Amino acid sequence: MMLRRGYRGDSGEMIPNVSAAEEALQEKARAQYQTIIEAHHALPKTSEDRKKRLIYRSKQRGWLEVDLLLGTWANENVSSLSEEELDSFEEFVNEETIDIYNILTLRSDIPERLSTNDVVSRIQQWAKTSPLGKADQSTYRDVKARNNLI
Questions:
Q1: Residue-wise pLDDT tens digits, 41-63
Q2: Hey, is 3 helix, strand or coil?
Q3: Alpha carbon separation from 15 to 9, 20, 21 (Å, rounded)
Q4: Domain-by-domain residue ranges, the chain?
Q5: Looking at domain 47-146, which of 2.40.10.240, 3.40.50.920, 1.10.150.250, 1.10.3210.10 is its CATH number?
Q6: CB under 8 Å to 140, separation ≥6 — which residues?
Q7: CA gap 96, 107 in Å, rounded
Q8: pTM above 0.90, yes or no
């Protein structure tokens, strides 16, 4: 039985404040909460779900520059990646945002642990020729709209 401190003058006593029906309801809620948490932390079961999740994570990094570069590349290319390439891309997406930005903009080399990752090299090559940041405002808006980044 849960006890709740209730105000009863200056008695300071602990009084029972939860009925059996409330306890049963709380127990049912705990079970539903656990089910929701387990589903939230579960890995995607299908390749299609995994691809959608990776595209979303690529677009929602928190830095506009990385969101645009990585999100645009993911939107255009993730659907055609093999399972091995998806593993490589996911490994790259798991990096810190600042590190992704520095790798994409060639400010730093690809780390040793990702050096065999062909996907990262392909993204770098794409970023070199990307119109994002190198074009006029209308081209920039068009690319954002086409890749669902607005």
A1: 777 778 899 999 999 999 999 88
A2: strand
A3: 13, 15, 17
A4: 3-41, 47-146
A5: 1.10.150.250
A6: 131, 132, 133
A7: 15
A8: no
